[in-house]
Specification:
seven-stranded parallel β-sheet, alpha/beta, five-stranded parallel β-sheet, Rossmann fold, elongated, 2 domains, about 30% helix, 13 helices, single chain, about 450 residues
C-alpha cells in the first residue's frame, strides 16, 4: 500500500491564509487549491458548486450521471467527486481513482458507494443524512391525504375525460392511525406533522427512541402493521430490511389500509404489494423508491405496480425540493472542503470521526500531518517514533473497521522538516495515504 501514498503541500511562504469566518485562526490548505479538481454529477445544488468554487477548486459539473466508461475516465484525475443516488462508485470504478481523497453523496443513502473499498484506498465518504427530512415527511403527508381521497385515480380519470364523482371509500385522515416503521429523523418529523392533523401515531424501531408528542412505541413490527390505517416505511437499506414488507407482512396489515414507502426500494416486495392491491386487501399505496431505478429521465420505467388501483408512483422525489437540495449542497460541500483543507473527518460515513482545533493565525511554524493506514498493531507507535524528534502540539487517532485515521499538528522549522517527516512516514508498510497541510 505504500506505493499509493499522496502528499499535497505548498511552500512554507504560502502559509499566510486566514479563515474568513475567524481571523484568529489559520486557514489550512493542502496545496495550491486551484489544483484541487472536483467532479460533480447528477445536477447537485448550485450552492454546492458555489461553495467548492469559492474554496478555489476546479469544478467539473454535469447535470446527469455518466456511463461507466466515461466515469472511469473522468475520475482518474480528480481529488473529490460529488454524486446523488444514480452513480455507482463500485470497486471497479474506484480502482481507477488514483488521486481521489473524498466522495460526497448529496443525498441520504450511501449504498451506491463501495464504502469498505473506498476506506481501504483512503477515500473518505460524506453524505447528508438529515437535510431532506422535512421534504420527505411533507411528501408522505400529502400522499396520505391523496390516498384517503383516491385523488390519484380521480385525477387520471379527469385527464382521460371521465367524470367520476364518488365518496365511497374516501375518508378524512383525522382520527386515523399512522404507523411509522423507522422512527429516525424523517419518522419523527412525520410523526409531528401527522399529529398536527389529528392522526394517532404508533411506531416501531429496533433502537430505543424517546417518543415525540402523543405517539407511542410498538413492541413489534406486526403490532404496527395490524393496528395502523396507514403504514409508512423510513428505514435504511440493510440486509435486515431487504423485503421486510413482504407477502406475510402485507397479510398482517388491516384490510383496507394503505402502505407508503419513501425509504429504499428493496424494503418492500413489489410483486407482493401489487398482488395485495389488485386483490383489494390494501386500499392503496404510494411508492417513491424501487429496487431498480432508471439512470436518466425519460420513458422506460417498468414496474408491477403500474396501473394498480389507487396507487401513487413517484420517481424518487422525496428529497427533491429546492430547500432540501440547497441544504444538502451546503452540508456535503462544506464537509468536502473541510476534509480536503484541514483533514477533519467529522460526519464521515466510512472513516473514524477525527478533528483538531484550529491553528492560531499567529502560529507560522505548525504543519498538520494527516495519515490513513491499516488498522493493525504497531503503526501508531511507528508514527510517534518518527514525530518524537519534533514538538507535537496536539494529535488524535481513531479507527473504524480495517482503517485507522491519524492527525497531528507538528512544529517545523522549514520545508526540510516536512520532507523528512513525510518520507519516513511513507515508508511504513501499512500506510495508505499521507498528506501534509500548511
Amino acid at each position: 500500500m505504500a506505493g499509493e501514498l499522496k502528499i499535497e503541500s505548498v511552500p512554507i511562504s504560502r502559509r499566510d491564509s486566514f479563515n474568513a469566518r475567524d481571523k484568529h485562526t489559520r486557514d489550512l490548505k493542502p496545496f495550491n487549491s486551484g489544483d484541487i479538481k472536483v467532479l460533480l454529477l447528477e445536477n447537485v445544488s448550485p450552492k454546492a458548486v458555489d461553495i467548492l468554487k469559492r474554496a478555489g477548486y476546479q469544478v467539473d459539473f454535469y447535470t446527469k450521471a455518466l456511463d461507466k466508461e466515461t466515469l472511469i475516465e473522468k475520475i482518474k484525475d480528480v481529488h473529490a467527486v460529488g454524486i446523488r443516488s444514480k452513480t455507482k462508485l463500485t470497486e471497479e470504478v474506484l480502482s481507477h481513482a488514483s488521486k481521489l481523497l473524498t466522495i460526497g453523496c448529496f443525498c441520504i443513502g450511501t449504498n451506491q458507494v463501495d464504502l469498505a473499498y473506498a476506506a481501504s484506498r483512503g477515500i473518505c465518504v460524506f453524505n447528508s443524512p438529515f437535510s431532506n427530512s422535512r421534504s420527505v415527511a411533507e411528501l408522505v403527508i400529502a400522499e396520505i391525504i391523496l390516498l384517503a381521497r383516491q385523488l390519484g385515480d380521480r385525477s387520471r380519470e379527469m385527464h382521460d375525460g371521465v367524470w367520476n364523482k364518488v365518496s365511497k371509500n374516501c375518508y378524512e385522515i383525522r382520527g386515523k392511525t399512522l404507523g411509522i416503521v423507522g422512527y429516525g429523523h424523517i419518522g419523527t418529523q412525520l410523526s409531528v406533522l401527522a399529529e398536527s392533523l389529528g392522526m394517532h401515531v404508533i411506531w416501531y424501531d429496533i433502537l430505543p427512541v424517546m417518543p415525540i408528542g402523543m405517539s407511542k412505541a410498538a413492541e413489534t413490527l406486526d403490532e404496527v402493521l395490524a393496528e395502523a390505517d396507514f403504514v409508512s416505511c423510513h428505514v435504511p437499506e440493510t440486509p435486515e430490511t431487504k423485503n421486510m414488507i413482504g407477502a406475510r407482512e402485507l397479510a398482517v396489515m388491516k384490510k383496507g389500509s394503505y402502505l407508503i414507502n419513501a425509504s429504499r426500494g428493496t424494503v418492500v416486495d413489489i410483486e407482493a404489494l401489487a398482488a395485495a392491491l389488485k386483490s383489494g386487501h390494501l386500499a392503496g399505496a404510494a411508492v417513491d423508491v424501487y429496487p431498480s431505478e432508471p439512470l436518466a429521465n425519460g420513458p422506460g420505467f417498468e414496474s408491477a405496480l403500474r396501473n394498480c388501483p389507487n396507487t401513487l408512483l413517484t420517481p424518487h422525489i422525496g428529497g427533491s425540493t429546492e430547500e432540501a437540495q440547497r441544504m444538502i449542497g451546503i452540508e456535503v460541500a462544506t464537509a468536502i472542503t473541510k476534509f480536503v483543507d484541514s483533514g477533519t473527518s467529522i460526519n464521515a460515513v466510512n472513516f473514524a470521526e477525527c478533528d483538531l482545533r484550529a491553528i492560531p493565525s499567529t502560529d507560522r511554524t505548525t504543519a498538520r500531518i494527516v495519515n490513513v493506514h491499516q488498522n493493525v498493531p504497531g503503526v501508531l507507535r511507528q508514527i510517534n517514533n518518527i514525530l518524537a524528534n519534533y514538538n507535537v502540539n496536539k494529535q488524535i487517532s481513531d479507527s473504524k473497521g480495517d482503517v485507522a485515521y491519524f492527525m497531528a499538528d507538528v512544529t517545523v522549522q522549514n520545508q526540510e522538516d516536512i520532507t523528512t517527516i513525510y518520507e519516513k512516514i511513507k515508508e511504513i508498510q501499512e500506510n495508505i495515504i499521507t498528506r501534509v497541510l500548511f
